[in-house]
Amino acid sequence: MKVLIGSTLTLTKVVILAAAVVITLSLARQPSAESATDTQIMFSYSSLSPIGAPAIILTPNGFPRDIYVWATNVKEPTGVSGFNIAVQYDDSLFAASAAPGDADGIGDRAWLQSTNRSGACIPGQNPQAGQVIGLCSTLSPPPPLGPTGTGLIGHLVLTPGSEMALSSPLAFVAPDVGVQGTFLLDAPVDLDLEQIPLTLKNSNIVYLGCADNSPPPNGDGVVDLANDILGVIIRFQMTPLDPDWSPAFDINSDGFIDLANDILGTILQFQLPCNQP
Ligand SMILES: [Ca+2]
Ligand SMILES: [Ca+2]
Ligand SMILES: [Ca+2]
What we know:
The chain has 2 domains: 11-26 and 210-267, no CATH class; 37-207, Immunoglobulin-like (Sandwich), CATH 2.60.40.680. It has 3 helices and 12 strands. It has helices at 11-28, 225-233, 259-267, and strands at 40-44, 55-58, 65-74, 80-88, 94-97, 119-123, 131-138, 149-160, 167-172, 183-186, 199-201, 203-207. The radius of gyration is 21 Å and the shape is elongated.
């Protein structure tokens, strides 16, 4: 998002703009009524719908984030009989793994089994550092055929480290030769198992300080409107010279409360849990 800030921008304008951003974000998080035309594999914040997650906020030393993997708009007539998910990330900044207790890895087989095919998932064997892999397949030849349309295929947990950074990619590994990539397989009706053409939609991890600044000293564990969003908005353009300055609201720690980093960065954490170090 590109925002131009004029030097004469008033606090009122900032409040109006911030409110518009909140409304836009809440609309953007609703599932789209009409779906895109292309088959995709994407990350989503939600286990209920593929709302997408182009930017995922992690707070160094903060809580783990659940991120879900969705296959969308599968039109392959035979449906999906198996898939492979391989995710690449910067392991110096966070860890990506299956959820605690999810013994069969990051892949989720419920959608794969939804047409009454029996399936199994296994965690990826010997993934490289900074990769997490899950494989799921339905073992029997058709019939029945596999599922089409849109389904949840994976669940991973991102656990932040202590390092601060600007951003880093959370990317699906493409299925190149000799690589355990990310792909969907059709159902082998004619004993010819093929990958279904699709687009891999990657995400970006954005690192921000925890924007929970509610009293008492270490916040109340969630980014709220009354304390945290309004708290940073009323400090717009403040520096450490202001009597109401609080470094906690300066979530990118540059000594200035601005719109693009601190106010929008706080708004983007609305209703998310985080913890102050
Ligand atoms: Ca699993
Ligand atoms: Ca709060
Ligand atoms: Ca700042």
